[in-house]
Design goal:
Elements: E1 6-11, E2 14-19, H1 30-45, E3 51-56, E4 61-63, H2 68-71, H3 76-94, E5 100-104, E6 107-109, H4 111-118, E7 121-124, E8 129-131, H5 145-153, H6 155-164, E9 168-169, H7 170-176, E10 181-182, H8 185-200, H9 204-216, H10 224-235, H11 239-249
Parallel strand pairs: 2-3, 3-5, 4-6, 5-7, 6-8, 7-10
Antiparallel strand pairs: 1-2, 8-9
Length: 257
Amino acid sequence: MEFENILFESKENISFITINRPRQLNALNIKTIKELITAVKHVESDDNIKCVIFTGSENKAFIAGADIKEFSEYNSLQATEMAENGHSLFNQIENLSKPAIAAINGFALGGGLELALACHIRIASPNAKMGLPEVSLGVIPGYGGTQRLSHLIGKGRAMEMILTTQIVEANKALEMGLINNIYSQDDLISACIKIAEKIKRNSPFAIKNAIKSINDGYKYDIDGYSSEIQMFSKCFSSADFKEGVSAFIEKRKPNFN
């Protein structure tokens, strides 16, 4: 696939999606969001892809936010469409059946942090800076940030970050539980690949259902415990379960497709 604002490649069952607008610090404009939607749909539909890693081009920014110039003259109806497109993309990422890893290699502000929040795992480099500074522009986070940040770090901390436009550095983000770990710029992608390699060894069917069960626990209209029971029982009818149990009994490594 060829895109204008993102780079997409797959190697050894891992896809890499790089937001590639370095002059704009990889800011998200409408075209980039549409390209990301297309790329994420491909990741979901391709059974050969077991994991996806998101990052930003060069070393200054993961994604420095939305493209402010593009929406500076929007009215409320246009803003609704903009937010809905962003939600569509980030909901896709959050609900992917394959784990999504954010390799945060610099500024992750506004929509950039919101994309990272939609990923299942977040790894950052030491120069990463994260925040949702939208209220300084007279607007609020509109791509799910008010919800996902609260779920991840708690209501009080999310309130403080959003209302004060606090920008946190990598060490603070790790302390808060906003990210999973920190690696140097040189080691960031390789560290994400190592995580993806560990994931690849496990059952795709079980991973898909684990992601859904965890996500369901954060939805107001779904009982996460009931979801876990359903996902658990579904696994017993899968080929992966039969292979996993057989491999354990036979003392060999499982061969999941």
